[in-house]
Amino acid sequence: MSEYKHPLTDAEFALNEVVGFDALCAENGFDDINSELASVILTEAGKFGTGVLSPLNVIGDTQGVKLTEKGVEETAGFKDAYQQFAEGGWNSLIADEAYEGQGLPNVLGTAVNEIWQSANMAFALCPLLTQGAVEAIAHHGSDELKQTYLPKMISGEWTGTMNLTEPDAGTDLAAIKTKAVPNGDHYLITGQKIFITWGDHQMTDNTIHLVLARLPDAPAGVKGISLFVVPKFLLDENGNPGARNDAHCVSVEHKLGIHASPTCVMSYGDNEGAVGYLVGEAHKGLAYMFTMMNCARQAVGLQGVAIAERSYQQALEYAKDRLQGTKKDGSRFSIIKFPDVRRMLMQMKSGTEAMRALALVGGAAVDRAARATDEAVQRKEQARLELLTPIVKGWITELAQELTYLGTQVNGGMGFIEETGSAQHYRDARILTIYEGTTGIQALDLVGRKTLLNKGEALADLLAEIEETVVVLEGEAAFAEQGKALREALNAGQEARTWLLENAEQDPAAAGAVSVHFMMLFGFLCGGWLMGKSALRAQALLDAGNGDPEYLKGKLVTAQFYSEHLLPRTKASLDTIRKGSASIMALSEDQF
User: Fold this and answer.
1) pLDDT by residue (tens digit) across 464-512?
2) Is residue 129 within 8 Å of 209, Cβ to Cβ?
3) How far apart are CA 266 and CA 255, in angstroms?
4) Taking the model in full, what pTM does it have?
5) Do 102 and 95 contact (CB within 8 A), yes or no?
6) For 322, how many CA atoms within 13 A lie in the half-sphere containing its CB?
7) DSSP one-letter string for 211-229
8) Is 362:354 a contact under the CB 8 Å cutoff?
9) C-alpha dist (Å) from residue 285 to 133, 138, 500, 534
10) What is the DSSP secondary-structure string of 147-173?
11) Which residues are catalytic?
């Protein structure tokens, strides 16, 4: 069973050389924050992830959680680990200083969060949801709600959840039936929610649920949904947890993976009604919840990076140790000597590095959009953030399925055996393309709201930036082939954009028919773009005699491998968009 080690060198390279962390901090008012401080934080986070969270990963997988008379009891050891996590200040890194947060850049928080997700994804889902709940309250809650709940949620003393889904309302949130009835200075909530991650546990003395519900006078559909804060324990006059609210976990799901993360069925108002407090204005809850959902979507994309990294580390260790083959002198050698094993490992490594770079670029887009002072610049940065979010979530989590599959394949028959650990990573990864909006939902978001709604303008800006990298690569003899490959992928992206704009106008079904292929094309294209930038920076550092030469030479190898093995998939996606959409649109129900 391999243990996790944070890939600090690659994380720092992506943060500093691809994102440009020091420039980002200087341009966006993060005074006294620089790459040196980031390195210290990442190093300490790596120690905590390796030393505290990672050893609990397999324990959580094998023991899971259980529902008792006290509620959900988390895996043994998780409560102590969570207390250390909160006391170490890890929950408050990027939160607003006005509510006792540390105010660090979101992109640095993204780099740190990868560690938690790799070390123990089931554990890390708890602070992930808390962070999203904090974002929603911070952006849309009243001053009273902020002062009451944010400091303790940010410190980690309390955790948060997101309650959207109901038995008859999954993606179709217009079908929500949970009710909220005014009752003095609060509301009484009645209804049931399902698939609530970390909906109950004993690690903290309160859990703050964000719940979508309808008021009695609510209009039909999504325009009639409101958002409420519903604490597990009501607060006394001193702001401390007091009486138990009428909100309970009534069952936990038995799942394929993430066994230590309780997925709860939550029941509100089985007795007198669960006390809740309105967030923002009535009937605007879905828009408010999207603040939390978009935060979570980028975080789930990052989970794809994290679990692929963990699977790669396990597969690499096994490939080096597993003896399979005999030399002429009778000595045996490890399976990493086999070309196909090296192919699979390099596909995992290069894919993970590309995904990491994109996740951090997406994290930096949050900072740039939030900190821009010029209105025109802010609109452009916000458009870039909104464009990247479905790609980060959709493409990365889909590629993570392939990479964790390869991790199990490297292990051969032992990969199918739970004791090796590879199977857990494969199982844990499977949820990533489903929760926080399936791959299909992300793809529809990309082609619809993020492309067609602005007539492809945001996508054109991204393609123009990729063009700049292509030109530099083409001008360097050592990177001419990578430049050519990226040029062909860029052309595919431009053609796909043109096809979508032209055909969606003629046939409303066209966008949906090609959406996933469209999203995957732009994912592989963005990965190739960032690996191209990485290669240029690695060579520049080598030429200047800076950095770790072995790591930098390795980066040149992974960038070339990505260019040769993964980037050509853009052409296949384009071919499918151009030729395959008609057959999809022609399908009828009786053909299945």
Assistant:
1) 999 999 999 999 999 999 999 999 999 999 999 999 999 999 998 999 9
2) no
3) 17
4) 0.97
5) yes
6) 20
7) EEEB-TTPPSGGGG-EEEE
8) no
9) 13, 14, 31, 41
10) HHHHHHHHHTSSEEEEE--BTTBSS-G
11) 436
